[in-house]
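Internal tracking record. Fields below are filled automatically when a chain is submitted to the structure queue. Please do not edit lines marked as system-generated. If the sequence contains nonstandard residues, flag them in the REMARKS field before resubmitting.
Queue: standard
Priority: normal
Entity type: single polypeptide chain
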Amino acid sequence: MNIEEVTAAGVEILHLLQDYHRPPAHREMLIDPILYAFMKGRFGAVTRQHHVSVYGSQKPKRIDFRVGGTNPSVMELAVRSPLGSGSLLGGPNTSELRKLCKVSTTQAKLRVLLLIDLYTNHYTKGDLQASYDVVHAGPGKFKRCPVRVVYVHMNNRFNFCWSPYK
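SYSTEM-GENERATED OUTPUT FOLLOWS
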């Protein structure tokens, strides 16, 4: 899985949701099964709720998706509803970024936070990236890896790299 394929998956989900008169798009957990089915059909070796150990945590954290194969990837999903909210900004996604950046390179070569925006107005790359620049990976001695943030809206799509070393 690469960035172009993740972006294409996000765009396809937006198109699939438009086929519904009343789309199931008000919460992330209603879009999650649609994305899982799409990815399972496209990539095959997809697992949900992949466990990752986090320093200082009693039990492992869960990441939404892991795509296996010779170039494994992990992905978290965040959705902004048609009613709007700040759920795609950096602050609300701190825990997702921290989980993703702690996945070792043996478990995943690519770490992606997929942001699907269903609101009428879209974010600009500068505004969204600025909200992620202030987020850090947290304290502790552990290896941190960068995370690719992929934003998908019907009228705008872009991606940028979030560095855990800011």
